[in-house]
Amino acid sequence: MSKEISKMLSLVLRHAPEHIGIILDQNGWTDIKQLISKAKKAGYKLSLDDLLETVQTNDKQRFTISEDGQKIRAAQGHSIDIDLALQSIEPPDVLFHGTASANLNSIFEQGIHSAKRQYVHLSSNEETALKVGNRHGKAIVLKINTGQMFKEGFKFFKADNGVWLTDHILPKYIAF
Questions:
Q1: pLDDT over threshold 90, residue 162
Q2: CATH of range 95-175; options 3.40.1260.10, 3.20.170.30, 1.10.10.10, 3.40.1010.10
Q3: Membrane-spanning residues where (predicted)?
């Protein structure tokens, strides 16, 4: 049940809120009671307990509940225009990006772009980056010189779930 709910939440909170008829505010938040009601009308079996369990047990911590417990949003990974209201912060000197080996030629020619997402996602450890890369084919983990990027004016953000975000990465900052 939790996996099905997680997939539905990812869809409506990151990509297609209209799928169940919810509205996200400018920062990606939506009312939990309304989400549950609309999800049920759309044919999903969802209770408050199911939702809370899914948020708490999600291995990637994809969802954030507001401090007052009334709203929910996706922590990152949006393909729709959302302002997560994150402050730019200095990243570690090196972060990691997992991708499929089939993407390497393009990456070393054009860099890493966010594609259909708002941001490029970076991991603080190689293990997480490898898991991400495995979702796209034969995985390769790239080391990103984020310290130098930051010194040269690139902005970095850290999502609620610890994923690092940036707009794009030029080839000169990428290594194996």
A1: yes
A2: 3.20.170.30
A3: none
